[in-house]
Each structure stands twice: as structure tokens, then as C-alpha cells.
Amino acid sequence: MHIHELETPAVVVDLDILQRNIQSMMDYVRAHNLNLRPHTKTHKIAEIANMQLQYGSVGLTVAKSEEAEVMADAGCEDILVAYPIYGVAKWERLARLARDRRVTVSVDSLAPIEGLAAAAQKHASVVGILVEFDVGMHRCGVSGPDAVVALAREVLDRKGLEMRGVMYYPGHVWNKPAEQGPSLAEVAEKVGALLEALQGANIPCPIVSGGSTPAARNSHLVTGTTEIRPGTYVFNDRNTLGVGACTEADIALQVLATVVSTSVPGRAIVDSGSKTLTTDRWLSGSDNGFGAVVGHPDIKVVGLSEEHGHLDISASSATLQVGQRVALIPNHVCPCVNLHNRIYFHRNGEVLGAWDVGARGKIR
Fold first, then answer.
1. Per the count of CB atoms within 10 A, which of 98, 122, 183, 341 is most buried?
2. How many of the other CB atoms lie within 10 Å of CB of 210?
């Protein structure tokens, strides 16, 4: 079957591009003596996770405890939960996983340290801890070396926990890669001051975990970083394209849609709305819009209803007809994938199979 024979909407992944993206990131980290721990929130698919491990990743990153269970069931032995997990059920879920695999959790407050320690002792396991610190994103993470040292000491004082290092997220760095130097220099200064404080306090810090897809290939500019956690790089999307972190040839995932109406002059409607593409905006571009139409830069995705994608074709020389297929690049691929039960993979348009999105909806 060819991809254009699939019933739409259909999410399709070019296997050659996907594998090239995975290999390219591995080549980068190896060249700079870094480890790669990719974030699986982008694909949520066991087969792709195993592909990343087979190419040389040291482990996987997830956001939620249920995602950790999915990736553990897929065979991953080393999982980082890069999220401030809170709740007894979640702590116990992770402590149970840690009985027979390496589980590490990021924290930025005392409560999860206490909760994870209690759960680990109950289940006779050891949970690793990374203390998260804020380098400019202002989302999670404590501010300043003193706060990190204080939390690290709390970890060291509790049975069932192991202090494994620190974590940061440079998610505020959205310059084009060639212009990221000054922003990452500020991050590097903060990381350097933190590592000096930890060393002065005799606190072990074998792991310094950072990275994001837009800044991934400049991670070596942040001295002291030992591993990075990019996620979007496996597929890429309109945001990574707009910031210059990839080219269109690096976009592995597309959403195939069918034109279902052209009744309104200057407008075409496709069968892919917010329940297919998500309403995430284009963060790295100069206009709004909800995606890009492959091969038709003069067609704009100007609106989304639940099941309707609104295409503005008034400035285009193309004449879309009902029944015609188009391929869309989502603004943000991660939530797009989470809307779908199954994703098809192909080579040169020939469908080779489909993956179940096993961690879809795993939000606890």
C-alpha cells in the first residue's frame, strides 16, 4: 500500500529520515563526549525508543510515571523522569520500577524527596535523584547554587535515595543555532557556579543533564554537561524548522489530509482539525497559523475546528479539489502524536507497517 491510499487523517513517518535523525544526533554527542538520553514524549512509541537505544542512547527520558512504566515494559533499563512528580501513587509506581531497573527522578522541592524516600524504603528499592535548577526558562527548578545544595543534602540524608546529579532545561533558548552563543554562555556560567558550589560542599554530581532540540547541537558550549535530553529531533516539526534547528529534508513526520469542501471562495477545508493537529502555535515564525502545507508555501492553515482544517488558498495558484490529498507539517509534533492511536511508517511512500502509540494518554 502507498501512503496516499491510507484513510485520512493519517500520521505517517518516513523511516529513512527518522533513522537519519537518530544517527545524526548520536554522531553529535559522540563527537563532543556527551551521552544522549532522548525524551520519549515526542513519539511515545516503544519501537522508536528501542531504536534510539540500539543506536547508542544511554537510557530514556519521560515526563510521567505511567510513561516510565510503558518504556520499562518495552525493555528500557535506565529511565529518567524529568518532571516534578507529586503524589503517593506516582512515587510508589516509580519505586516499584526501581526494584529491577535504574530509575532517576528530577526534583525541585522537599515534598517529592520525602515521598520518594518513603516509597523506596517500602518497596526495598533505590531511586536516583537529580536536583533541577532554573537557568532561564522560569518553569521549574530552584534558583541559585545554595538552594540546589540544600536539596541535595536532603537527598543524601534519606535512605532509599541516591544523589546522582543535577538537571537543567534551556527551553528559553529559541535563537537560531548560529546565534545561540550568548544565551548559552549565560547558561554555562550558571552551570559552572553550581558545580563549583556542589564540589565545595562535597556533594557528588556525576550527572549534569541538559539539552533541548533547538539548542541540542550547541550543548557542548555548556561546559560540565554530561548528557542531553532532546525529544523533537526524531521527527522535527514546523517549530524546529522555523528556528533553523533542521531543514525540511529532516522532517520525518507528516499528517496526510483530504480536502472535503471548497464551497467557500478562497477557502478549502481538510479533514484534519484540532483533534488531529492540535492548536499549538508556531513559536518560531513570523505569522500564526496551525501548520504548513507541504509543497504549497502560499497556502496557509489559518484556523482549526475540532474536525476541520481551514486552508486559505486565496493567494495560491493551486486549485484544490474535493478529494485531493495534502500533506501537513504540524507546528508542534509532540501533542500531535499524542492524539493518535497509530502511526504508519514508510520508505519512499510504501507503507511498511504501523506503530501503536503505547504511551498515548499516559499523563499520570
1. 98
2. 25
